[in-house]
Amino acid sequence: MKTIIKKCISDSVDNYNRILNDKYFQENIEKIIVLSVKAFRDDKKMLFCGNGGSASDAQHIAAELSGRFYANRPPLYAHALNVNTSYITAVANDFGYDQTYSRMLEAFGRKGDILVGISTSGNSKNVVNALKKAKELGLITIGFTGSQGGEMNSVCDIMIKVPSDDTPRVQEVHILVGHIICNIIEKEMFPDA
Q1: Is the pTM of this model over 0.85?
Q2: Residue 184 CB neighbours (<10 A)
Q3: Mind listing the pLDDT tens digit for each residue in 164-193?
Q4: CA dihedral defined by 79, 110, 85, 161, rounded to 10 degrees?
Q5: Max CA-CA distance within the chain?
Q6: Strands, E, within the chain: which ranges?
Q7: What is the CA radius of gyration of the chain?
Q8: CA distance 191 to 15
Q9: Are the beta carbons of 83 and 66 closer than 8 angstroms?
């Protein structure tokens, strides 16, 4: 058991060290922050979607923006598309699971908004379809994936590709990146908070 624990920690540290020394990875985080601050200042919103653990990450990051991160400040318009289970189950039943997020995006998404699709493989059909719909609607598209990027490579303006294919290691970095984004957006939007 101790060997497995040490390996998990070691693998995680190795992954963090790779992104710590990856200038391109960090530049993409910076680009996301700049676009997000501009969107919020232009009265636009950030939308998030994913499945399973990625749905939890989508909800977590949206909550940090719409609630608070460190500062007591006004809320930002951020929403996870996966939080309405009645909607998700109805659309999955009536139109198919692959249409759950793209259909909701038709109702919520407006030109200039940002959609962040989260999928460790980059191939989750409902997330890819949402990103395609977002492009049609004029949203900025951002993908959080593992090392390959999958189908999301072709539909995202900016990609955060974690240098791993191990789902738990990828998800650990996704939430770290989400926290960095929330932290700096909050400082940029509310410098006096």
Answers
A1: yes
A2: 18
A3: 999 999 999 999 999 999 999 999 999 998
A4: -60
A5: 52
A6: 46-50, 78-80, 114-118, 140-145, 158-161
A7: 16
A8: 32
A9: no
